[in-house]
């Protein structure tokens, strides 16, 4: 270990050794084996999550949205999947009325553009007990565009998020029956915000052909549905140029993997 003086203090950080480029690459390759094993384990866990049993939601819930009262079904916005994050913004929460909870605000700050989730038949919704006027003011101040509704009944308590933050996932079938499919809270929530992490906790997953999903689940060719967030068009065929580019990239990845260069 080497010792580096920490700026502004008398404490010395015990840092790793400084090595040659060859030794550094060898160390990276050694760590990469573990990182790839973790990636495969994460994919396997997501596949297992897609096979979790569902719980039907039979109770009626109401919320306040920007346009007035809405139901749980309305929150899906016509899509099959719904992710609801319980964010603490209400009287009694540190920061009120200027700010929401600091932790919940960090989550909101890192949420990717929701159009990518929407393209996978998935809606992301934040929920708090603050009135809509306060939520609109907060969103404007912080630059957030995430759909955000007000909880006005026992929804938060019934789904385990009345005291702490948490993320619930729901699925709506063709007959408008709603099912709770997954729930994550505490440190499980801290990695949320990215498109892939959100899709990996949904019952349908990323919906790409490489995934291990139950028979009959929707799946499309890998990468082909990707788009600029302002360019998704419902029902549009993948752009042919992007198909060619992604095919070439996928082929290169496979070749690297076969040669052990990934």
Question: What this model shows, in words?
Answer:
The protein is α+β, with helices and mostly antiparallel strands and 262 residues long. Among the domains are: 55-200, Glutaredoxin (3-Layer(aba) Sandwich), CATH 3.40.30; 221-251, no CATH class. The chain contains eight helices and ten strands. The protein has helices spanning 21-49, 72-75, 102-109, 115-118, 132-142, 155-158, 195-200, 240-258, and strands at residues 2-5, 12-15, 55-57, 62-65, 68-71, 81-86, 122-128, 148-151, 166-172, 178-185. The protein has an eight-stranded mixed β-sheet with strand order 3-10-9-6-7-8-4-5. Strands 1-2 form a two-stranded antiparallel ribbon. Helix 5 (132-142) links the parallel strand 7 and strand 8. The chain is globular. The model has no long low-confidence stretch (mean pLDDT 93).
Please give a quick description of this structure.
The protein is 32% helix and 19% strand.
């Amino acid at each position: 270990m080497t010792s580096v003086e920490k700026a502004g203090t008398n404490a010395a950080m015990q840092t790793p050794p400084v090595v040659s480029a060859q030794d550094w690459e060898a160390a990276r390759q050694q760590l990469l084996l573990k990182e790839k094993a973790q990636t495969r384990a994460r994919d396997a866990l997501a596949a297992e999550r897609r096979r979790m049993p569902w719980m039907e939601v039979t109770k009626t819930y109401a919320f306040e949205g920007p346009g007035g009262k809405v139901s749980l079904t309305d929150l899906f916005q016509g899509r099959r999947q719904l992710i609801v994050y319980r964010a603490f913004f209400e009287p009694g929460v540190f920061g009120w009325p200027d700010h929401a909870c600091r932790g919940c605000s960090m989550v909101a700050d890192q949420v990717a553009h929701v159009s990518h989730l929407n393209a996978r038949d998935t809606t992301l919704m934040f929920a708090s007990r603050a009135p809509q006027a306060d939520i609109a003011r907060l969103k404007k101040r912080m630059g957030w565009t995430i759909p955000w509704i007000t909880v006005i009944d026992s929804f938060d308590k019934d789904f385990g998020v009345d005291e702490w933050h948490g993320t619930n996932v729901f699925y709506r079938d063709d007959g408008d029956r709603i099912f709770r499919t997954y729930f994550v809270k505490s440190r499980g929530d801290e990695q949320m915000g990215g498109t892939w992490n959100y899709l990996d906790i949904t019952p349908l997953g990323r919906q790409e052909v490489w995934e291990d999903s139950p028979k009959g689940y929707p799946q499309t060719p890998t990468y082909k549905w990707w788009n600029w967030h302002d360019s998704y068009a419902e029902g549009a065929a993948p752009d042919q140029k992007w198909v060619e580019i992604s095919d070439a990239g996928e082929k290169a990845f496979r070749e690297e993997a076969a040669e052990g260069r990934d």
